[in-house]
Amino acid sequence: MRKQIVYVIAFLAILGIPALRAESAATPQELIVSAAASLTNAFQEIGKKFESAHTDAKIIFNFGASGALLQQIEKGAPVDVFASADQKTLDQAGEKKLILPDTRKDFASNSLVLVVPTGSKISIKSSEDLLAKDVTRVSLGNPEAVPAGRYTQDALSSEGIWEALKPKFINGGSVRQVLDYVSRGEVDAGFVYATDAATAGDKVQVAVVMEKHKPILYPIAVVAATQQKDLSQRFIDFILGQEGQEILAKYGFGKP
Amino acid sequence: MTTSIAPLVLSLKVAGLATLAAFVIGVAFAFFLVRARFWGKEWLDAVLTLPLVMPPTVLGYYLIVIVGRNGWIGRWLYETFGVTLMFTWQGAVLASTVVSLPLVFKAARTAFENVDQNLERAARTLGLSEAAVFLRVSFPLAWRGIMAGAMLAFARAMGEFGATLMVAGNLPGKTQTLSLAVYDAVQAGNDQLATTLVLITSLVCMSVLVCSGRILKAQYLKEGNR
Fold it and tell me: Fewer beta carbons below 10 Å: N end or C end of chain A?
């Protein structure tokens, strides 16, 4: 019986762990920013810089595939700022009157690359090499929701090998998932942005820089349903300003 | 309609095979744990029950580390046979098996514990071998309890999402089960397809629950009459 009491106390103690975290007294203004997965590292640093410049503000990031983020906003997610990896997603948001059109600005550009796991035994020098027999799995973002996947489809269709490669495709839920598949060596190659390839360090190698796709331009806008238009606008201005642009450049993003 | 049939067929195939695998493994371990006496018995029980408590993503991560192309077992599989479970429906079966195993195992253990040991002893005195005692006495007496567990395991396997997504990916027509197809449809804003898939899933899961409820009820009635 005494033993059982000890177990009950241990169980309750585990349940009590969350109570140990002290709640902070002051509640700063929270700004929720939904941003394309490829922006993860750069935006986290920009967020920290913005918070130290605006001590009353707290930025909460929601990273994911641009298409999925749009769906969340459409279903009423309390988002203030939306940064997408392509124009189409923000065009759709504009048509559905989900963003304030006059706040929309392009803030960065990127390029699409084909990466392979470091030390891969398969030689890939061009996207046509993916047709080779020893390449069995090629990962790309799901074109329905992931802009990087749409750019990939665009580039491979222009080269006329999209249909032929289809059986080898492993769809990722976001561009970062594709990067993860390649860096773990689960797939033979994958299409990601140049900036993603850079964050993976020495786990992946860039094999080909893709060219035959629409220019990759990142737009940002204030979400129409926001309660904090001023703070949202200040965050966008910060990204377009010198400090924001420097951080983006550091992570490999180009000028818009 | 065709876009919703493929995920349904795949889900039924994956859940069916996973339930079968969980059934064999779960019953074997349950019988072993009820009959054998050794140190660490309850620890083994906890390990086998763990998938019920842990988030599926944690299980998915464990599975990637173990069966991924560079995993402990995965590397060996890939280098020796040139096969990998990642992004295959067999990988989905593995994930679903792990997730649903505790449901069969727990139910089977309880069922075996409730079998009257005097009946087993009587069978032995009448000259039955150990295997025959299991097949003709213990197993038939525990059958209903085990079946109820298997039904729940099937329902759980039908709904599996997290571990499956991490191990088998989300490939339409190859590894996209019902739950993954719903996720994809919602992500892409295809609400019409999502609604169809959700209705199909609800219907299948309801049927399984009603069936398992019937079996459980029969079990109580039987015990009540004894």
Answer: N
